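Database export, one record per block. Field names are fixed; values are copied verbatim from the stored entry.
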Amino acid sequence: MAEAGPPTELPAEAAALVYREADLLDRRQWRDWLDLYTEDAVFWVPSWADEERTIDDPELELNLIYLVGKGSFEARVLRIESRDSYASLPLPRTMHVVGNLRRTGGTGDAIEIAANVLTLACDTRRGKSVRGGRCEFRLSRTAEGLRIARKKVVLLEEAIDGPIDVYHI
């Protein structure tokens, strides 16, 4: 096992994982996307509490998306694949642009990363939409390699126009 570097040093493996996640979402490779997450992973998109801050407690406040545990991710993918999701009809074509990756902390087998993301979604029914935000990742070393244990996406939008799902952001 490699030692963690200083908080500002971003391991290439960690950056590659974040880029791979974006690529798998764009290519609609849902099962491979699931494999990037740990069994107890959390995917959280908080809502804005006011003009300056997002909510603090996903268990007690309103979220845009809050998935806890691999089972909830798998249920989400099942709805996407079965076309049983309003947000997925029709399934838009997406392009994620991830940038400004930086290590923000973590030690040993845990790495914390922040990144900026822009997503273009092209939908035959709704047209084009662009969403931007900041992501916070907690990556954990597992027997299968580095995996995403937590992903928090803070969208810049205060009000969401239309449905959103994991691939929209």
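Remark 1: Residues 12-168 form a domain with the Nuclear Transport Factor 2; Chain: A, fold (CATH 3.10.450.50).
Remark 2: Confidence is low (pLDDT under 50) at residues 1-6.
End of record.
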